[in-house]
Amino acid sequence: MSTEEIINLLKQKSNPANLAGMKRFGIEVETALGTPIPELRKLAKIIKKDHNLALALWETGIHEARILASMIDDPKLVTTEQMDNWVGDFNSWDLCDQTCGNLFDKTPFAIEKALQYSLAKEEFIKRAGFVLMAEYAVHHKKADNQTFLALLPIIEREAWDERNFVKKAVNWALRQIGKRNDVLKNAAIDTANKILVQNTKAAKWIANDASRELKNR
User: Distance between CA atoms of 185 and 181, rounded to whole angstroms?
Assistant: First the structure.
């Protein structure tokens, strides 16, 4: 299918009424069609992997086309330059999370970029750093503990950030690392205790929420 054919399909599957709901959940809808995620996943299964088509869909700037691009792109063909370009376009938490969880965390550069983006000033780029950590913890079952132990000081370091979409991603990363096994659970709880000492509003929320969930597992 061509880019134009896919955009036409997205428009056919769209429901403008969905835009109000997306907006309520803090999703940027200026370039959105209101096409549900399940419809995007169905279309992705039909298209299969297509790197060049993914690049073309991203360039349309359409919200759902970009999410679809993250579903059909081949992580083996993604470059660090592409990752940097795409995260620079993030304008919504769902685009950030879908792209990181569908694609970026499966690239060889996932951890490297997580560390890089964790230092960003821009809210959604910084969020991407911690979403990458969370998604990597979920999807890479064979990764060793040391990979995640090395991320905990980064999580502790950035727990001061009060911005909603950053602090939630920091919390998410901490919880997902702690859910992998008992060693990482104890290390994550220790990190939460260190974060609590920072005594900021964001740090308290991150630490208390993560500790409560991990201790109840």
Answer: 6
Distance CA 125, CA 137 (A): 19
Q: Is 92 exposed, middle or buried (0-12, 13-18, 19+ CB in 10 A)?
A: buried
> Helix 3-12 to helix 37-47 angle, to the nearest 10 degrees?
150
Helix ranges (H only) for the chain are 3-12, 18-24, 37-47, 51-59, 63-72, 80-89, 93-102, 110-117, 123-139, 145-149, 152-157, 164-178, 182-197, 201-215
Report which residue type is found at 44.
Answer: A
Is 28 a residue whose pLDDT tops 90?
no
Residue 104 CA to residue 136 CA, distance in Å, equals 9
Distance of CA 53 to the CA centre of its chain: 21
**Span 102-113, pLDDT tens digits:** 999 999 999 999
pTM above 0.85, yes or no: yes
